[in-house]
Amino acid sequence: MQVHWPEPAHAPGSPIEPGELGSSGSRRALLGFFISGVLVSFLGAILPSWQHHLSSDYTIISLYFLGLIAGLVCSVWISPRLLQSKGLSWTLSFACGLAGAAFLYLAFVSPPWAHWWRVGGLMVVGCAAGILHTAIFYAVSPMYRHDPLATVNLAGILFGLGCFVEALAISFGYSFYNAPTIQVWIAAVPALFGWMYRRTRFDALPASHRPPAGTLRAARRNPGALLLSLLLFFQLGNEWALAGWLALFLSQRLGISPATALWMLALYWLALLVGRVAAQWLLSHVRHGRMLVASVVASMFGCIVLASTNNNFGAVTGVLLVGFAFAPIYPLVVEKIGRRFPYYHPGFNNGIFSFALAAGLLTPCLMGLAATFWGLRMVMAFPLAGSAIVFLLLILIWLEARLGAHARPVEGA
């Protein structure tokens, strides 16, 4: 997953701010997206260590994701109060400390403890991630206004790197350590970042440049903006459907070891990460519409390969194909959305990001219920159907753009 703010169309009163890109506070705050990747991807990687590859009670996994979502949503109301009363340094440090404490708690209540204890711990993980996102969006706003493209790309790379390192570390640790030990080691990562943030000086909360009155209302009434939002919703759902269930699916479906399944999950995150870095170069050489269509078709084919394979080679091929195919879709969609919302406001953009992330995690939550009633094969049906919906939405967006282009001259007549 890549974090992205709207493309910069500098509004009056929102000038480019020279010299802020080198601010140590902004750069250290941006590193928080690495921790964000660790927090949000934790559940999909830890499921085999919690022995869920030996169970067919998939409703428990749905409850885990529901707890994570609930924490993210609650943080939207908690975070602004913490920022206003405590400031950036304390809030960033608190979010990292809360995450570390939640991982330690989850280590203590690992199986055979009842799953309800872990649902509560995951709510705290989600809340810590949401608080962290809010503080980061405010802390890096000067850096964003100085160089939006560099800030966006670095944020996406750091988030993907956190997801990749998390899955890779758990895959290596699975063969040598039990679940509590793995989670204690993970807890040390946000704790170290919390110590760094506590010792970092940040400027006062930056003043936000609000959009002109009526701008957001007009954008919401635009059918194209609604279609783009739906496309973003389904694409995030596709990415997190695989991120949450891939290791479990491969372990139970193909009978491969959990350590190997986790390695393939890390490979999926690596393909997404490398693909998004490569997409930045391709954007200036390939027509965006063609790239979107090719990516969606390739992702559908990759899901079919994963659903039908019966060997490791097919699994690796499907994982790489889906990862590389998913990679350019999100940046391209958000680029289009950025034209509808060309103003940067930390609180507004953090709300969009938090709710979009919660919506993306809703898909793996629903997949647990579907797998309970119709079997584990349904896990691949969700991203396959989601990719088909994304393809349909692309056609509708193209039609809306063509109709809008024909209607504008008539309106001006």
Can you describe this structure?
Helix 2 (32-46) crosses helix 10 (223-254), helix 10 (223-254) runs antiparallel to helix 14 and helix 12 runs antiparallel to helix 16 (378-412). The protein has helices at 24-30, 32-46, 59-86, 88-108, 115-139, 141-146, 148-174, 179-198, 215-221, 223-254, 258-282, 288-308, 312-326, 329-340, 346-374, 378-412. With 413 residues, the chain is mainly α. The chain starts with 23 loop residues before the first helix and ends with a helix. It is 79% helix and 0% strand.
Write the layout of secondary structure elements.
Blueprint: H1 24-30, H2 32-46, H3 59-86, H4 88-108, H5 115-139, H6 141-146, H7 148-174, H8 179-198, H9 215-221, H10 223-254, H11 258-282, H12 288-308, H13 312-326, H14 329-340, H15 346-374, H16 378-412
